[in-house]
Amino acid sequence: MAGAAVCQRHYSFRQALRASAALNTPLNVPRLHTSTPPRFRTRTSRTCMTFLNPLALLGLAAASIPVIVHLFNFRRPRKVDFSSLTFLKELEKNTMRRVRLKQWLLLLLRTLAIACLVLAFARPTLTGGAAGALGGQAPVSLGVVVDNSLSMTLRDAQGEYLKQAKEQVATLIQSMQRGDEVFVLPVAGADSARPDAYRNTGAALEALGSLTARPGAPATSRALSRAASLLSDKAAHPNRELYLLSDLQQSTLTDTLSSDAPEGIGATLLPVGNRQHANVAVTGVTVESRIIEQGRPAEFQATLTNFGDEALSGYTAHLSLAGERVAQASTNLPADQSATVTFTATPPERGWLAGRVKIEDDAFALDNERHFTLNVPEERRLLVVRGRGQPIRYLEAALSPGSSEGRAAFTTTTIGESELAATSLSGYDVVALAGLQTLSSGEVASVARYVKQGGGLLFFPGAGAQAEDYNALLSQLGGGRIGGTSGTPGAASPTASFENVDTEHPLFEGVFAPSSGDSERRVEQADVYHAANYTAGGGAEQTIIELTSGFPFLQEVRHGRGAALLFAVAPNERWSDLPTRGLFAPLMFRAVYYLSAGGSGAGRQLTVGEAASPAASVLRLLSGSGRVYASRRTS
């Protein structure tokens, strides 16, 4: 019964803590309604006994041995009649009564001796209201898990939640007696916490004082599992208690409530905070515009989430680029739901720009803004691969450096068809294949891999080309196939013209202006004399311009992180009069801008605590003074 007083002492402290802590759950980020957790619940004052070595109780069977021996030795005296021994028989009766009483008492003592020996090996412990009245104290091992997630920075009438939790733990540590030990673990950073127990009050309080709120907190069950493991493996005493102090946030506590409590360890949950907080957070930012240019409007979208119980109307958010506030938008936020706001802003310069969406201040300020990056290309590197004998002067003129004044410049490199196999495509943003006659299997694989990794492909057919090679490339991209051609190059009359144009496609952003009195966008028509008959496959495809013949004139095929734009005509006047139309130059410009975007103008967004790896295998480090350090490989 050595551990009885220790259990009583900690029981009294637990009651004092629970009496001072409010049991209603605060409304935070996100909200968890008041409930009693199924696994961790307040103990009652009922007295109960447990055994540290319950298997030793099997030895109680040995207590039956004295009874069995007694039964075997019990003999009924045989009657012998003597006529003159009446007095002796009366004396015998009186004597035998005392002998039998002594025998029963001796049997009881033998049985109790064996039972007490077995119970001693089973090491019984007594807890509850009557435990403190039965004697000595035994040392105890405590595991204390403190929730130090960012939501613990909220406040109520008693002050900051984390400070309240630390004060309760400090009181627990100060109540430790000689021989007690305590493990102190935070929820955020439990894996790197000290794996040894504190047996000195001063050291334990110093460790507790160093706990601060940290972002990226994992599920609470992870810290509880770590604490239970330390108590099971490293605790020096059989009396073990586990405490969790938390504000009961759904984001960190949900899986804890469904997990099993540590076996053989008493677990107690102590809620912190009793105030409900209305909170709105910026939970996402995306760049909607596919083509980003300096001085041209771009569209951004932010997701706002209302974690409160009341709807908010006219809630305002602000967008900043390169440190300057550039846009503002408002929306209505239903209770406990999300809504999106759209901003239109103009990038003020080229390069990587820092962006931020910020909302109104509230009780929890750490989720009131979200950062992102925007890439406004300083130049676009274009590789033009010219097929043998194919005229591409119109294409070269449309994409010449002089025609990109006021925009990100094109750096255009032109090579012959025979040089494609030896050229590294990774150094270019867009590759234009203009009328190639043949494509080897190696070239097909190289181009398909380039597109999959985020490159852009501009494809034009050519006279005398091998349709099988083109179809092999289209198959690698997940597209359809070319089933021959229609019309005659240089014919006197066209064989087709534009039927449908998807002017809502990002390729045409800002290209067309509605005519006066007409909201419909007018697209300049082009006559087609000769065209490849392309049939779409089952991949990620979209027809941007459709001909009157029913075949696509301009088809988009997405593959991996990149895309390809397939034209049905060669870029010369013998296939169509498009090169001589005013539509040709802006269409080529927009095609290159669209393909070089790589899917989005935004950089990757990371949340605190998320693992990240650099895209490049080699890093080049520069100091603030411009000094270049030796390159380091990342893998």
Question: What can you tell me about this protein's structure?
Answer:
With 635 residues, the chain is of the alpha/beta class. The protein has four domains: 4-47 and 138-271, 3-Layer(aba) Sandwich (Rossmann fold); 54-76 and 89-122; 280-376, Immunoglobulin-like, CATH 2.60.40.10; 380-513 and 522-595, 3-Layer(aba) Sandwich (Rossmann fold). It is 24% helix and 27% strand. It has eleven helices and 28 strands. It has helices at residues 4-20, 65-73, 86-122, 161-174, 201-209, 220-234, 250-258, 393-398, 441-452, 467-476, 584-595, and strands at 48-51, 124-127, 140-146, 155-156, 159-160, 181-186, 239-246, 266-271, 280-287, 298-306, 312-321, 324-333, 338-345, 351-359, 369-376, 379-386, 409-416, 430-434, 456-460, 481-487, 496-501, 527-528, 530-535, 540-547, 552-559, 562-567, 618-619, 632-633. A nine-stranded mixed β-sheet has the order 17-16-18-19-26-25-24-21-22, sandwiched between helices. A four-stranded parallel β-sheet has the order 6-3-7-8, with helices on both faces. β11 and β12 (324-333) form a beta hairpin. The longest helix has 37 residues, at 86-122.
Which structural traits does this protein have?
24% helix, 9-stranded mixed beta sheet, Immunoglobulin-like, Rossmann fold, 28 strands, 635 residues, elongated
Structural class: alpha/beta
Mean pLDDT: 79
CATH topology of the largest domain: Rossmann fold
| Portion in helices | 10-25%
State the CATH superfamily name of the largest domain.
Answer: Class I glutamine amidotransferase (GATase) domain
How many angstroms does the end-to-end distance come to?
Answer: 59 Å
Strand percentage lies at 25-35%
What's the arrangement of strands in the largest beta sheet? 17-16-18-19-26-25-24-21-22
Give the domain tally.
Answer: 4
CATH architecture of the largest domain: 3-Layer(aba) Sandwich
Helix count from the secondary structure assignment = 11
Q: What best-fitting shape do the alpha-carbon axes yield?
A: elongated
Question: In the CATH hierarchy, what is the class of the largest domain?
Answer: Alpha Beta
Number of DSSP-assigned strands: 28
Rg calc: 41 Å
Unreliable segments (pLDDT under 50, ≥5 consecutive)? 1-45
The largest β sheet comes out as: 9 strands, mixed
